[in-house]
Every structure is written in C-alpha cells, then in structure tokens.
C-alpha cells in the first residue's frame, strides 16, 4: 500500500529561500524611512546656523518627509491595488536615490523642504506596495514574524543613521550634505535586490488572471501548489469606497488611530533628539549621539523581540501591554525632567523597548484585516492617517520645547500614548494563526 504524503499549501508553506529574500528586501522601505527621518536631525545641527533656520523652517524640514509619506501612502496604495505590486516595487526606490543626491546641492530651506517631501512621497508609496507583497506571499505561521521584521528594519535604519551621522560630523562643516545624500547608497542596494521579484499571485487571482497566478505559486511554493491554496474567492474589483463600509471603516480607524498615537511622539523624538536630550541635560557637544545610539538599540531590541512575541503572546495582549508601559515611561519623563540622568535614561529605554511591538503591529494589522482587493489601499490610507499626526507632532515639537518646556512636552506625549492604549483596549483583535481570508473577515466588535 502506497503511503500518501501531505504537501503543504501556500498558507502552510515552509520558510523557503525566496520568502527569506522577499522579507529582507521588502524591509528596505522601512529601513530607508528610519534612516531618512533620523539623519535629518543630525544634519540640522549644521543646517540651522548655515541656513539661519527659525522654528518655522526647522519644523517644516522635519515634517516635510512625513507629509510626503502621507500623500504617497494614500495615493499609491490605491494605484497598487489597481495595477499590481511588482512595477512600483522598484520604481519608488529609484526616486529615493535621485532625490537624496539632489539634497546635497540645496542652497535654501525651501529647496530642502521640497526634496524632503518628494523623498517622503517615494517612501510612502513603498509602504503599501512592499507590505502587501510580503503579506500575500507569507505563510500564516511566519506572517507575524516576517511583517515584524519590517518594524525592526525601521529602527535598524535609525541606528545606521546614528552611526553614519556621528562619523560624518567629524568630516567638517559640509558634513550635512553627505548625510542627506547617504540614503542613496542603501536605496541602490535594495533596487538591485528587488529586481526579478514576481507579481503577487493573490493580486493576480483577485483580478481573474488565474493562469499567471498559478505559474507564480508553482514557481514559489512548488509544483504541488494550486489556486485553491490561495483561498481568494471570487474575482473582486478594487473600490476605494469599500473602506467606508461600516466593518472596514472601524478597522481603518482602529489601525490609523493607534498608529498615529504611537508615531506622533516617537517621530518627533527621533527628529529632534539633539534638542530633547539637551533639554534633559544629557550630554554636551556631540556626546548626546552616544546616548541617542544606545536608546536606538532599545528601540531595535523591542522590535526584534516582537518578531517572536506576536505569535507567542498574541497580537491583542502584546499591543495593550506595550502601550501601557510606553504611557508609564513617558509620564515619568514628564513629571521628573530634573531627575538624575540614569532615571531619565531608563525612562527613554523603557519607552523605546515597548515601542517595538506596536511598530511591528503597524504593519501586521492592516495587512491581515483587509482583503486582497483593497489591502494596499488600506495600508496606504492608515499610513496617511498616522503621518498626519506624526507631521503635526514633528512640526509642533520645536515650538512646544521653546514655549512650554520639556516637562509639558513630555506630558502631552503621555496623553497621546494613553489615547493609543484606549483605542487598543476597545478594538484590538486577535489574528494569530488565521489565514488572510479568515483575518480579513473578522468584525472588530464581535471578537
């Protein structure tokens, strides 16, 4: 009697070399985002006196990339659902290379704001493109970890920017030009690694291109794979207004709001770390960069831990407990700005570590909670929502530090993280172990 061998389908596939490579190169967008948003804070140390920047232009330069992210995510998420993931997966990085190099030759604050906006536009486009592509190829057992890697890449980019900025600051008064242009180097590496990536078979199947979809899944998962493994259901037209339907609207609000309340204080801290750490009297001259780099390591450690915790601990408890500790840490920083340096450092370290899991869930939740026909659109919309808050927070932070002081600024950040906690307690679902179809069918008030 011949023994029947069960071959795993798409959702239960092992972690193949193709999937590992895809996880690495889709992480490029978040890596560049972290690098670009962090390196500008260091460049501003030289740019402020050279361009004679006041609070308005400093805030505009800090917020410009975030505004670009808002527009890029909202527009190109929908375009990606209409036209596919593959083409834009490479083109957006070419834009980052060009605009990064052009930053080296700016002579006015307005020129820099414009180029920072264009860079943000390209990074914002990459978020829905790359994350949808990764989610649609990922088996359910590894999806949380693979999507969590995107958040780790953001902080890895920030750490890389900290190291690059510290080294480049030693090169002289024009170091800011090399800092701003340096983002072109990782972008160039990523473009070469992304070349040849196939189109998402889920997107192809959702558009009725079943022959092409079958060819891709056999190429990626093996000759035994079939279209039934995708479990995509009937062909469905991409309609942006579907996000306004009650069930999807609540999901959009949930992800958009918790993401906003997480990144608004976080991005502001990243962009203006020199001013914030100086307000806490941590370091002098360029010494603050060392403390900043150590705090970045806590951010990175938290996201790396989330790769394991999202499956072990579950999505809902992980995000609730993380926001709880973030709120507590920010509250301590707000009520004790004159505390000893070790306590201030511990407050930042706790906040940084527990920012990791929500950062991973920024990518996991929107890609799991929406169907293929509107997945990239949803990611783009929630990215845009979060960047509205982040841009406002980043623009307002210099004014807040100058007029309200460090204590009140930190307490306002505490309020934002607490509101994120409230949103998660009310709406955060558990999607661990579900297929994409099962997760996207969840109704948030019926958990």
TrEMBL record:
Top-level taxonomic group: Bacteria
The keyword Ligase belongs to this UniProt entry's keyword annotation: no
Pfam entry (one): Sugar_tr
Chief location: membrane
Gene Ontology MF terms: transmembrane transporter activity
Keywords: Membrane, Transmembrane, Transmembrane helix, Transport
Membrane topology label: Multi-pass membrane protein
GO cellular component: a single term: plasma membrane
Domain Major facilitator superfamily (MFS) profile: 22-432
Transmembrane segments: 22-44, 56-80, 87-106, 112-135, 147-169, 175-193, 252-277, 289-311, 318-336, 342-365, 377-399, 405-428
InterPro entries in UniProt: MFS_dom, MFS_sugar_transport-like, MFS_trans_sf, Sugar_transporter_CS
Location(s), subcellular: Cell membrane
CDD domains: MFS_SV2_like
Protein name: Inner membrane metabolite transport protein YgcS
Organism: Sporomusa termitida
Encoding gene (name): ygcS_2
